Amino acid sequence: MIVWINGTHGVGKTTTSALVQQLIPDARVLDAEKVGETLMDITPGLPWTGSFQHWPPWRPLVVETARHVLEYTGGTLVMPMAVLIEQHWREISAGLAQHGIPVRHFVLHADLSTLRRRIESDADLGPSAFRPQHLEPYAAASRAWLHHEAEVVDTTHRTPDEVALQIAEAVKR
Questions:
Q1: Which InterPro entries does this chain map to (predicted)?
Q2: 0.90 cut: is pTM over it?
Q3: How many angstroms separate the CA atoms of 78 and 139, rounded?
């Protein structure tokens, strides 16, 4: 099974995923961003499209990487990755379904002021010019499709431990 943890940049996907991994037996974290980083390392490079998610190979490579890791290890993959374009999510989820891999799709949500505060006060990454650029695309995706396609977990007034426990308990049910 895959536990996909979606949401905008700065909402806490990576932190939550590490905590969820500790709560689900035989769970491993597979960050789909690493697939994008691998593509970015290709030299002389792929034509820049603004995001590695727009490169046609990224989505099927995410599916195939997850499939092969699950075949090798079994258990549960916890995958933190913001996917805000509906067509990209459709390609990934259809690819996983084609291989019979069940997906529990969660979206971490927080109100805008909380997101801005978290981004600005991030002790690990520091203030970011990149992450605030994704707040409006996240809000648009939330209204259009994302919140209808996933289990929404409001993180506004909750600790990462509380959020991870909610997700782990939902997966175990």
A1: P-loop_NTPase
A2: yes
A3: 23
